[in-house]
Amino acid sequence: MAEAEWKTCREAPPLNAFCPVRTTLNVLGGKWKLLILSYLLEGPRRYGELKRLVPEITEKMLIQELRELELDAIVQRTVYQQVPPKVEYHLTEHGRRVQPLFEALIGWGQGYLQREQVLTT
Amino acid sequence: MAEAEWKTCREAPPLNAFCPVRTTLNVLGGKWKLLILSYLLEGPRRYGELKRLVPEITEKMLIQELRELELDAIVQRTVYQQVPPKVEYHLTEHGRRVQPLFEALIGWGQGYLQREQVLTT
DNA sequence: CGGAATCCGATTTGATACTG
DNA sequence: CAGTATCAAATCGGATTCCG
Q: What is the reported pTM?
């Protein structure tokens, strides 16, 4: 597919194999993935740290989302062979590239929150 | 809560009422919401148009997600009293403000797709 | 045309207990 | 500490039927 095509591809499936919007949503759209990534952007985190930082998510979902992010080459898992065990998750290059997306996301949330303040006051 | 606090709030619940990341994910994080919004950003769409543009989603989920976006003041529903009926969905001001978020989202997807090309070639 | 209502099976998510 | 295993609950999808 030529570059000009997938750059603007908005077709419905199955013609959307290279639609950037659907691609991003497929990779980052998991229920907890962006929230997990928001913490990994601040630096590498251990499994227990993430569990504490995102208490809404269960252990099962946390490990499941981390595994999927690993398969999609967004995060990398590092095991330190020691007792007690230590495992760290850190972003790959593609993971770090979500930074601008997050800045836009945070900007939108701030604007929305300010409206909420006005409405509920 | 002072502005400086919620701007950077990364606390775990229940201290995160004003976390911009969690706010955005709560409002826009529905399974199909961002995909629906990506089409509404191009202009108002009728119910049937959205159904055709996003064939992955069932009628039930489409109407459900649209209702939630309406409750969160992201989209507005306009009924034209005529036969046959015509209903249009268009973005509110807060809905239109997701544009920068989408540009970042599309940019990330393009970068990720290029890597995929390299890997699968 | 643009929905609403219902039933039902499949998938996803969650709670709890347990392990190397 | 960093997960697994198991079972229950919630959500989602698909089909069908009906309505203004």
A: 0.90
